[in-house]
Amino acid sequence: MATQNDTFLVAGCPFTPGGTYHPCVVVKWLVAATRVRVNGQPVVLRDSTGICQAADQAPQGPPNVIVTQVRVKGG
Questions:
Q1: pTM for this one?
Q2: In 1-75, at which residue ranges do the beta strands (DSSP E only) sit?
Q3: Is the Cβ–Cβ distance between 74 and 47 less than 8 Å?
Q4: Are 28 and 45 contacting, i.e. CB atoms less than 8 angstroms apart?
Q5: 29 DSSP β-pair partners
Q6: How far apart are CA 68 and CA 35, in angstroms?
Q7: What is the distance between the alpha carbons of residues 52 and 18, in angstroms, rounded to a whole number?
Q8: Residue 40 to residues 3, 63, 64: CA-CA distances in angstroms?
Q9: CB atoms within 10 A of CB 42
Q10: Burial class (CB in 10 A: 0-12, 13-18, 19+), 66
């Protein structure tokens, strides 16, 4: 389960060094679940909002999540 504080490496960023944009290196999650938590941290859902950041933390746009887990079961 991914939480809002988890950091993810970016693969396949279309931006190249130079010019206005920098290559994306991490995703920072801005809005995650409001009621579902793991170890006190909000979980990342399919509709969570994030921003890709370059190495200098310059924002590069929203992430495109390709694969998600559809269901989990808690106890």
A1: 0.71
A2: 8-9, 26-31, 37-38, 41-42, 49-53, 59-61
A3: no
A4: no
A5: 50
A6: 19
A7: 17
A8: 9, 24, 26
A9: 18
A10: exposed
Residues in the chain: 75
Phi-psi region of 40 (alpha: psi -120 to 50; beta: other; left: phi over 0): left
Q: What residue spans define the domains of the chain?
A: 1-31
Give the pLDDT confidence of 12-67 residue by residue, as tens digits.
776 655 666 678 888 888 998 999 888 899 998 888 888 888 888 888 888 877 77
**Unique residue bearing structure tokens 């994306």:** 24
Rg of the chain, C-alpha, whole Å = 14
